UniProtKB/TrEMBL annotation:
Enzyme Commission number: 2.3.3.13
Molecular function as annotated in GO: 2-isopropylmalate synthase activity; acetyl-CoA C-acetyltransferase activity; manganese ion binding
Full-protein interval shown: 1 to 385 of 509
Reaction catalysed by this enzyme: 3-methyl-2-oxobutanoate + acetyl-CoA + H2O = (2S)-2-isopropylmalate + CoA + H(+)
Protein name: 2-isopropylmalate synthase
Domain of life the protein comes from: Bacteria
Species this protein is from: Carboxydothermus islandicus
Amino acid sequence: MERVRIFDTTLRDGEQSPGVSLNAMEKLQIARQLQKLGVDVIEAGFPITSPGDKEAVSLIAREVKGVVVAALARASALDIETAWEAIKEAESPRIHTFIATSDIHLKYKLKMDRETVIERAVAAVKLAKKFTADVEFSAEDASRSDLDFLCRVVEAAVKAGATTINIPDTVGYAEPEEFGEFIRKILEKVPVMDRAVLSVHCHDDLGLAVANSLAAIKNGARQVECTINGIGERAGNCSLEEIVMALYTRKDVLPFYTGIKTEEIYRTSKLVSNLTGMPVQPNKAIVGKNAFSHESGIHQDGVLKERTTYEIMNPRLVGIPESRLVLGKHSGRHALKERLLELGYELTEEQLNEAFVKFKALADKKKEVTDQDLEAMMEEEIRKV
Ligand code: KIV
Ligand code: ZN
């Protein structure tokens, strides 16, 4: 069994989902939960994009320990210096710098020739390296780049000091078999790849992000970049819960493991959905409302006789309790605390006391206090902070 590192970019690529904007306290709350979930790297943001994002990244770097905290930077001095300013207080800081390598991006976006791209990549990695030993380099739009040129860029970045090389499928164009081959060839052709971890970052435009990431792992990638609930630019990124549970459930054909505490998956999903305002579709794999529900009589009968007839995972494994407590006016503090914890809210004694008073007032007006009621109640509290 080989270890695959989980690089979570919910707070960077995930926050690039149209309509999503998180404040510093919301980002910090998610980062704390990601650390609890056991991700290896939290990409906390893209500090050059706004003073607010830079402040949020600094806060996470200061407060969240026991995990690598990364900040994104284009291959430019100002971006890299700003990223470093933001993460310099982290226990384990990583600068993640990138430049595009596909001809289409070179011609229309960067208006740069290939030699200049290599020079910029090398200069960016060298500058980042002055600040921290942990430097990741990404070749944006790698999957649509000329393989030989891409290999030259990758080799130059490793020689300049990059310790992680990320191969993004930026526009979700790759197909699993082809992408797996692509990764294998990079590892074969670049002589210095034993000095760096190969990572992949797949987007979901064709619904293939998880399949492409799995194909890459089978061919030598040892870091995957992903987001909670698969949120991200356009159709989103590889979903963390899906790739982690695919590796966990199919160890027989995928002999890899991650450091993820799977029992924390559901509450992380709920927290991200609540704070981003992006609902999770009911039929979403692993964390959707219907993921462990059975509707047809045949399925219900099968599950009642033996759960594994129609369930390939035990819902408890991802933190979904099989039976739920109904919360009403006779419920106590303990039940409320547990339910709030399931929904991703870890409260201090004082916060719980306040929440309990509000909950009782609500319970007097309603027969049952639903998760939605509790989420609305907690969002109101967070907004006050
Ligand atoms: O999709 C992409 O190429 C990215 C890079 C910045 C890693 O998000
Ligand atoms: Zn991306």
